[in-house]
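User: structure tokens for this one?
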Amino acid sequence: MSNIFDWQLVFTEIPLLLKYLPVTIQLTLIALIIGWVAGLFIAIVKIHRIPVLKQLCTLFVSVVRGTPIIVQLYLTYFGIPIFLKYYNFYNGTSYNVNGIPPIIFAIVALGLNQSAFDSETIRAAIQSVEKGQVEAAKSLGMNGLQIFFRVLLPQAVTVAIPSLGNSLIGLVKGTSLAFTCSVVEITAQGKILAGNSYRYFEVYCSLAIIYWVITIFIERLFTYIEKKMSVPEQIAEKKEA
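Assistant:
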């Protein structure tokens, strides 16, 4: 049976794969921050209908959401060096394109992809806040920034938490495509180990277990955060439902 499928190999390969887990975590966290910050910016632009910027943001979201992440990774990996060479040609500066760490390309692509999806979640969450609360805050003398940070954002975060958690899970799984940018994370390491032993099925089972555990952890974490941030009325409504 071990000639067909080796269960022991599935678990002995996991420690070798986990050595590259920090790379996956680094990709995820930095891309997540980029996604949330850029997504918030895009959401604000679209809510306030800022001329030109709104059209550009709408086009950006449409393109990113309408193309596969692997295509975006390839475009970033090959496009950034072309842009730098073009800029070098016209600006007279010098860039060592080959000296750019491959992980930068993956982070840019994953972060921009995350921002396009998160922007719609954040926009919907902000718009879900009752306008009466904004009017009440204005009557108390709050300015725009105070209203945003004290009234809109806290309530919007509570609404957006479940969707942002699902988006984060998708981002973690999306990092498995970072090998297209020559980044060795756990999936790329799995391909290397499988190529050496020719035990592809066992190695990919090991990867599946790792991603599954990470996903469960994220689900539990965001469920805990959601419960902590929910107001008593929201908790009562969920119990009744």
